Structure formats: C-alpha cells, structure tokens
C-alpha cells in the first residue's frame, strides 16, 4: 500500500499521537480500544444522520478532545446509543467491559484517547479513506512495535491474501479459524466475499485471551456483521472437536507450542507428541473439514521433516489422501522472526476447490526465493506477482516447473520417509542416488548408502537455506537461573514456571536400595545425545520412589550430568515419565519461554561445555559442577519459534549421525564376514 494513501497518512498521524503514551502499557488492549473507536467512527460516517443521538455524542467527544473534559464518557455514551441501532455491526459492544469501554477507567487510565480521537477528527478526508486499510495498517504497526510474541505471530497481510487466493471463499461458505489471533485471516476471507459477511458464517477461536475483543473489532472493520470470537484453550478444542462442518479453514496456529498431556480422542493420523502441538492442530483442522472442505495452515518448516512420531503421522496423512500440497515460503516474512514457514493444504476427498491435486500425488512448491525486502524494512514482502506464481501451480493444472514446483506421487514421498519439505522434491531434490546399483554382496550397504545420500541431501538443504537473524531482533542472553525463576518473562502471562534442582543425596538413595526390578534411577552414564540408555540402569522399589516425589521426572524435563562429561543431558519423554533423577544429576523443568530440546542442544554445544569445564572442580578425569554454577550458565534465548527450529535442525543432524554409526557398524560386519570368507574359502 502506498505511503501516500489517505489510510497510510491517517495511521501515521494516529500512531504519532499514541506513541508518547506507549511505554509500559498493554498495547494489545490499547489497539482493541483504537479499533473500537474506528468502528464507531466508520458507523457515524456511513449511517449517522446529523440529528441522531450517537452522532451528537461522537461530535461532542471529538470537539472536547483538546480540553479532555469528558471524552471517555462521551465515547461510552455514543457506543451505547449506536449499539441500539439495528445496523450497528457489534451490537454487544456496549456490554464489553474492556479497554476504554471499562466504566471503571477514567481519562488518566487511557491517556492517549483524547489525542487519538482529536487526530481522527482532524485527519485526511474520511470520505476518501478505506477503513479496512486503516485497520490493517494499525495492526501492522502494532506488530512492528510490540516485541512480545510467545510463539504467536501476527500474520502479514500478503500471507493472508495468499491463503485466501489459493482457496477463494464463496458466499454461504462456513469458514473457521481455530487460532485466529487478531483475526487477520478471517478478515481477508471476509473481504473476498462480495456482498458482505454475516458473523454466523465465521467460526473463530482465540487461544490468547487478550485477542477475542481485538479480533472482533478487526472483523467488524472488514465488514463482518455481528462477529463473534470465542476464547478457548487448545486442549478444550482438541478434546471436543466434533466432526466436519467447515468448508474452509484458514489458520496460523502458535509456533513452538507445547501440547502437554493429551487424551486419545480418536486422532485420525496418530496421537501427537506432548512436546509439539503442530500435528494436533493439523489433525483438528482436517477433522473439522466438510466433505469437500479445504484447510490452509501455516506451519513451521520443521513439521515437514522432524523424525519419530511426527514422521509416522505425516506418512498416515499422505497415505490417507489428506494432503494436497505444501508450499515453502521465504524467511523474514513475519515481524520479529526470520523463521521460514510452510503452508499445508489439507483437504477431504481431494477437494474440487484445488483441482491441482488429481490422483495419488501432492503438489510441492518451493517459493523460498520469492519476495522482496524494501529499504529500511525488517521483513520480506510477497508481491501480487509472487502470489500469482504460487496460486497458478494449483489452479492452472501445470504443476511441474523445474526449480519451482512439482507433483510428487505418494509412493515417492513414502520412500523418502514421509518428508514433506518442498525443497527435497523440487530441482536438485529429484536426483536419486546410484548407490543401489552395487552388487548383491553389498546390497544392504548400498541400501544404507542410498538412505545416507538422501539424508545428506536433505540435511544440506536445511542447513543452507535456513537462516536466523543476525541483526535487527537480537536473541537475548540470560542466566539460566533467571530464566527458570521467570525474571526474563512474565510467568503469569506466559504460563509455566520452571524448576532447577539437584538429584537426591546419597542418604536418600543408598547403594543397598537398588534392585533388579522397579523404577529406573537416572545416572550420568545413562544419558546419551539420543535419550536414555536403559542397559544397566539402576532401579528402586515403587514405595521408595513414591517418597521421592520432587525428584520424579516429567515428560519435557531435562536431566543433566553434574559430574563426568559436563554438558551430557537428555530430554525426558513419555516413556521416562515417573523415573527418578539420580544423585549424580540435575533436573531442569523448563519454563514456558524455554524449549527443552533447544536447551539440550545448546547445553551440548562447545561454548556451553567449555564454560562449564572452566568452572568445574574435581580431578581431570571426574569434573563436577554445583547447582549454583549451573544457574549462572549464560543462555542465548531467541524466541520460541526460533528455538524450536534450531532444535528440529539439531535433531536432523543427530539422526544423520545415527545413520553414519549404523553404516559404520554394517561396514565392520561386512569386513569381518569378508575376511572370514577369504580365510575359509
């Protein structure tokens, strides 16, 4: 949008009068109040006759703004009066006890309101201003100014438009966003439908309880009549999700979100891990689609190639025909993060809305090279031409464009282990290893070599194309103890506090307490980079373990060695739930701002191990650190989505290393057998 447009000029002036009051305030609440004022101003302009009561109240508020006499009282009176009008888009606005509508607040509690209303009255000609553009620009400006993300990012307008252009909504469609944030995706969908949208057409849930009011105002500014946005926890959505009903789902769920304990509610493609909600969102959205429904979901890139349970769920989705396409978008599209994202196109029965997905195939588009980065802008922008190139791959039937797009059979995807990163299949990703042509004697080794070749290629793609920011938003450095104690974030707002403690003393678990069967007790020698080594692990009785409650491990904890090889650690999974932290270890229960897998990878890094070694005590062969020293460890703490991406990449590296070790073991076996054959033949 041109910076010379009436909407851009108005927003610049409005933000300029708000900026002096911004520091230390809840800017999300302020933004919702701004949009409420704009909803009222728009209604006054379009439906207000000169002698109507709410118009008189509005004029009085605008006229008195310079004197600050009773601006809030006049605005509240105008809202009450307008809400009784049959054409007012948010009739329940008068019942909201939020922001500047809170009857307990006075002008000093909302100090910017008078200047804001005054500037709105003195701004460019409102008759030539597109109100929806004003709303969009205010949301963008707020996203740039607000540094709090907690894994949930404002969806840029051009990304929202891309999703809507891929599956254009039609009048009468039932449209859902189960994690609507500020309502940007639903607003883009509403704008696409000619003739306006009734609020009953939209089903919207906000996972951040500060967002429902903001999203409601945003939808009203985009022509949605009587919008309703409900606050809901993800667990309640997943647990009582129901079936079908949505013709279209547009969603950008929170990144880096920990799911926690999940019930078996009939997940169609497999029970998701507690450590990542990504596949819970994908399965919930697919379950909510109608018979010919389509879901377009923004996902972190790691969801396309993470190992373990998620790989099995991807295979099930592909085999079940739930996936029509995956689009890799460029990095730096979102404010405050350089993390690249993918768009997953989900469908029931290969929906006719996306005619590209004919047969047993998935369309992959590598759009990671698109976008432009305007001068003095911190993020890239997808132009209309960029979006048209992507949309064409799905609507014009020609899916195979070298270096950009390709239709890939289910069989090939499953042979690749269910990986869904478009970069693996487009361009160089189509090359196949010739290692499988070796003779039968080395057949098994050749198969391993082919697998290694694919893994090497995929890993190279990930490492070469993933870039984290080196300037702009700099990851903060903090002491581990401060992170655990919540001193680097608002624990009450972010959710989960942390815990850091040493294992039980020798007097609580004595040598004679160990037995053949029972509850495992984790020692430093039981920790490996890939988890826990149960061979030779010690055990105690259930009754004794019950008395060590504070040392019992939970899924998502990190067990760290306090002696021996410093930096050795493992993340507790569901299989280790209820085990006991031993005397030679520490247990860290990370707070909401710290991803367990990221911290484990960070702790294993050379800088962290060097720092711990330099502050250790004991002999050269048995180094030891104290709990106090561990608490002083400086930790690089990027945002949660970046942490998750780093952890995913390191997991890919770990998986590649395991393949190398397996291949080495196989080579040694062949060497032994070949020598035996030569000597005996």
Question: What do you see in this structure?
Answer:
By secondary structure, the chain is α/β, with parallel strands linked by helices. The strands form seven sheets. Strands 5-3-1-6-7-9-8-10-11 form a nine-stranded mixed β-sheet, sandwiched between helices. It has a four-stranded antiparallel β-sheet with strand order 13-21-18-19, with helices on one face. The chain has a three-stranded mixed β-sheet with strand order 17-14-20. A hairpin with a 7-residue loop joins strand 18 and strand 19 (569-571). The radius of gyration is 28 Å and the shape is globular. The termini are far apart. Mean pLDDT is 81; it is low at 428-441.
Descriptive labels:
24 strands; 4-stranded antiparallel beta sheet; 681 residues; 9-stranded mixed beta sheet; 38% helix; alpha/beta
Short description:
This protein is of the alpha/beta class.
Strand content: 5-15%
The counted number of beta strands is: 24
Number of helices: 23
Radius of gyration: 28 Å
Mean pLDDT: 81
Helix-strand category: alpha/beta
Q: Strands of the biggest beta sheet: in what spatial order?
A: 5-3-1-6-7-9-8-10-11
Largest sheet features = 9 strands, mixed
Low-confidence stretches: 428-441
What order do the helices and strands come in, and which of them pair?
Blueprint (H helix, E strand, L loop, with lengths): L5 H13 L8 H21 L5 H12 L6 H13 L29 H10 L8 H15 L11 H10 L8 E3 L6 H9 L4 E2 L3 E5 L5 H10 L2 E2 L3 E3 L2 H6 L6 E6 L26 H10 L1 E12 L8 H11 L3 E6 L12 E7 L13 E6 L17 H12 L9 E5 H6 L6 H4 L17 H23 L10 E4 H5 L6 H4 L4 E4 L16 E4 L4 E2 L2 E2 L5 E3 L1 H5 L11 E4 L7 E3 L8 E2 L3 E5 L6 H8 L2 H9 L2 E2 L4 E2 L2 H5 L2 E4 L2 H41 L1
Parallel strand pairs: 1-3, 1-6, 2-4, 3-5, 6-7, 8-10, 14-20
Antiparallel strand pairs: 7-9, 8-9, 10-11, 12-24, 13-21, 14-17, 15-16, 18-19, 18-21, 22-23
């Amino acid at each position: 949008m041109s910076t010379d447009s009436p909407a851009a000029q108005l927003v610049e002036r409005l933000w300029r009068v708000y900026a002096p009051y911004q520091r230390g305030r809840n800017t999300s609440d302020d933004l919702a109040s701004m949009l409420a004022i704009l909803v009222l101003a728009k209604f006054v302009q379009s439906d207000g006759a000169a002698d109507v009561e709410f118009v008189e109240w509005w004029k009085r508020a605008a006229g008195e703004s310079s004197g600050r006499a009773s601006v809030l009282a006049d605005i509240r009176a105008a809202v009450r009066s307008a809400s009784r009008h049959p054409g007012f888009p948010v009739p329940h606005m008068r019942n909201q006890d939020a922001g500047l509508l809170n009857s307990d607040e006075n002008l000093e509690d909302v100090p910017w309101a008078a200047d804001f209303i005054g500037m709105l009255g003195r701004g460019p000609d409102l008759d030539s201003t597109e109100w929806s553009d004003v709303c969009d620009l205010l949301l963008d400006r707020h996203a740039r100014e607000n540094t709090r993300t907690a894994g949930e990012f404002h969806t840029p307008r051009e990304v929202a438009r891309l999703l809507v252009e891929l599956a254009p909504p039609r009048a009468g469609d039932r449209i859902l966003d189960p994690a609507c944030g500020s309502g940007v995706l639903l607003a883009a969908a509403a704008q696409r439908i000619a003739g306006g949208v009734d609020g009953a057409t939209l089903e919207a849930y906000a996972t951040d309880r500060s967002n429902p009011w903001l999203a409601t105002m945003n939808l009203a500014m985009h022509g949605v009549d009587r919008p309703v946005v409900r606050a809901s926890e993800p667990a309640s959505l997943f647990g009582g999700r129901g079936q079908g009903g949505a013709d279209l789902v547009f969603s950008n769920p929170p990144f880096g979100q920990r799911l926690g304990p999940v019930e078996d509610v009939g997940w169609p493609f497999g029970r998701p891990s507690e450590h990542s909600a990504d596949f819970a969102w994908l399965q919930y959205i697919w379950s909510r689609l109608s018979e010919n429904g389509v879901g377009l979901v923004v996902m972190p890139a790691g969801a396309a190639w993470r190992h373990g349970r998620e790989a099995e769920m991807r295979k099930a989705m592909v085999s079940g025909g739930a996936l029509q396409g995956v689009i890799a978008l460029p990095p730096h599209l979102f404010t405050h993060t350089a993390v690249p994202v993918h768009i997953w196109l989900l469908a029931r029965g290969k929906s006719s809305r996306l005619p590209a997905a004919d047969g047993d195939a998935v369309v992959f588009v590598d759009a990671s090279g698109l976008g432009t980065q305007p001068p003095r802008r911190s993020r890239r922008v997808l132009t209309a031409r960029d979006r048209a190139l992507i949309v064409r791959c799905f609507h014009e039937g020609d899916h195979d464009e070298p270096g950009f797009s390709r239709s890939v059979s289910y069989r090939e995807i499953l042979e690749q282990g269910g990986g869904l990163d478009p970069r693996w299949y487009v361009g160089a990703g189509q090359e196949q290893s010739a290692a499988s042509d070796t003779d039968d004697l080395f057949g098994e080794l050749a198969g391993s070599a082919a697998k290694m070749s694919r893994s090497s290629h995929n890993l190279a793609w990930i490492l070469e194309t993933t870039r984290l920011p080196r300037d702009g938003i700099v990851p903060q450095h903090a002491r581990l103890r401060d992170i655990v104690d919540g001193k680097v974030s608002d624990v009450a707002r972010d959710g989960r506090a942390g815990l850091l403690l040493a294992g039980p003393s020798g007097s609580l678990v004595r040598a004679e307490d160990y037995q053949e069967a029972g509850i495992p007790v984790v020692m430093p020698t039981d920790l490996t980079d890939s988890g826990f080594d149960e061979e030779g692990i010690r055990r105690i009785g259930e009754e004794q373990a019950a008395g060590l409650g504070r040392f019992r491990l939970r899924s998502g904890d990190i067990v760290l060695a306090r002696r021996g090889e410093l930096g050795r650690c493992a993340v507790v999974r569901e299989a280790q739930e209820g085990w006991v932290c031993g005397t030679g270890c520490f247990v860290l229960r990370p707070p909401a701002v710290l991803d367990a897998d990221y911290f484990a990878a960070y702790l294993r890094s050379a800088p962290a191990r060097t720092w711990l070694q330099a502050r250790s005590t004991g002999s050269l062969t048995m180094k030891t650190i104290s709990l106090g020293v561990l608490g002083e460890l400086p930790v690089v703490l990027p945002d949660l989505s970046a942490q998750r991406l780093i952890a995913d990449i390191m997991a890919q590296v770990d998986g590649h290393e395991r393949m190398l070790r397996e291949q080495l073991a196989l080579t040694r076996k062949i060497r032994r057998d070949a020598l035996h054959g030569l000597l005996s033949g």
